[in-house]
Automatic annotation (TrEMBL):
This is Mandelate racemase. It comes from Haloferax prahovense (strain DSM 18310 / JCM 13924 / TL6). Residues 145-241 form the Mandelate racemase/muconate lactonizing enzyme C-terminal domain. It comes from the Archaea. Residues 342-365 are annotated as: Disordered.
């Protein structure tokens, strides 16, 4: 088997005017990402996702990857991440190179799984899992005036026993949002909060201390991703576990997060971190320092499938069955047809669990007609 072609497919969906949603940094109306399709001489097709604009990913693929990937054996997939740091030298760690690499890498792993008849999580090794705990990513800041309790009620009705909510608009607002979520979820549910890097260290510390009583599983991106000294300052000042990773790229950036326990949870996004090859290395780095791994997901169905396969492979170390700390995957509860419509059988988080596909590769079947409906370059 060898690769015969790579196709870059930008897809997007726009929310209606007045229905924008987002985080403490602002509202957005567009859901957009880029699918990567890799064809082979055997007729097998691999799918991946580069979580970045297609208008940028297309020239990056042409400039840095196409000549090396066309003609390669998909079983050589791991060398692609290695090569991205040395050729192109000085460019390998950039977000767009890593995003393009991610999409191609995942597509190649999809092909390897199809060639061997095994799902990707079995190829990566680790702890076999058939289901994963899904947490509702919800309570976004919204352009429309909405009751902040409504999305949490919806998550509870759907059976979620874990949720992550947006905060970062001032300590008083943070406390109100967290208190509301905790009251509706109940005392036993896991509750995470996400600041999206909107605070300076002292602001983050103030909020962390104010919401500590609500038993927070982790505080995500308390300061901007590039502010590593800020992370260390927050870490010294609070007892709430810290998480980060959605805006970090490649194993070397994650190593900086892991070193000296800057965070308690790393969150590689499979459409940005370098793909499954780099994510597996990141997981090894994290587990070596006893840091938890929980993938970040705000992608299309392809990125979600990659994250589920990755999460199913991550070791439980150092836990045993006597320590209930389930592997969790993020499940965004906002409107997203790029997740819900481009698979023949969409993921279903009802009941607070997601099945790990056991079919070969990513274990999902792409609805190419739906992909064409949301294609952004036609």
């Amino acid at each position: 088997m060898h690769v015969t072609d790579i196709e870059v497919i930008p897809i997007s969906h726009r929310l209606p005017e007045g229905e924008g949603l987002g985080d403490a940094r602002g509202f957005g109306h567009d859901r957009a990402t880029t699918l990567i399709r890799v064809d082979t001489d055997t007729g097998d097709v691999g799918w991946g996702e580069a979580f970045a604009p297609g208008s940028v990913i297309a020239p990056v693929v042409d400039e840095f990857f196409r000549d090396d990937v066309v003609g390669m054996d998909p079983f050589d997939v791991r060398r692609l991440a290695e090569a991205s740091y040395t050729d192109p030298y000085h460019f390998g760690g950039s977000v767009f190179v890593q995003s393009a690499l991610s999409g191609i890498d995942v597509a190649l792993w999809d092909l390897v799984g199809k060639a061997t008849g095994k799902p990707v999580h079995r190829l990566l090794g680790g702890t076999p899992r058939e289901t994963l705990t899904a947490y509702a990513s919800t309570m976004y800041f919204t352009e429309a005036d909405r009751d902040i309790a409504e999305p949490i009620r919806d998550a509870v009705d759907e059976g979620f026993s874990a949720a992550k909510i947006k905060i970062g608009n001032g300590t008083d607002s943070d406390v109100e949002r967290v208190r509301t979520a905790r009251q509706l979820l109940g005392d036993d549910a896991r509750l995470m909060v996400d600041i999206n890097g909107n605070y300076r260290p002292r602001q983050a510390i103030r909020t962390a201390k104010a919401i500590e009583e609500f038993d927070i599983t982790w505080m995500e991106e308390p300061v901007p991703p590039e502010n590593l000294s800020g992370y260390r300052e927050v870490k010294r000042g609070v007892d709430v576990p810290l998480a980060a990773g959605e805006a970090h790229y490649g194993r070397f950036e994650f190593k900086r997060l892991v070193d000296d326990r800057t965070v308690d949870v790393v969150q590689p996004n499979l459409g940005r971190c370098g793909g499954l090859s780099e994510a597996s290395r990141i997981a090894d780095l994290a587990s070596t320092e006893n840091v938890a791994v929980r993938p970040h997901i705000w992608n299309s169905a392809v990125g979600l499938a990659a994250a589920v396969q990755f999460a199913a492979s991550v070791s439980d170390y150092p836990h045993t069955r006597h320590v209930p700390d389930p592997m969790m995957v993020e499940f965004d509860r906002s409107e997203n047809p790029l997740r819900d419509e481009i698979l023949r059988t969409p993921f279903d988080p009802t009941g607070g669990e997601v099945d790990v596909p056991q079919a070969p590769g990513l274990g999902v079947e792409i609805d190419e007609d739906a992909v064409e409906r949301y294609r952004a370059d036609r």
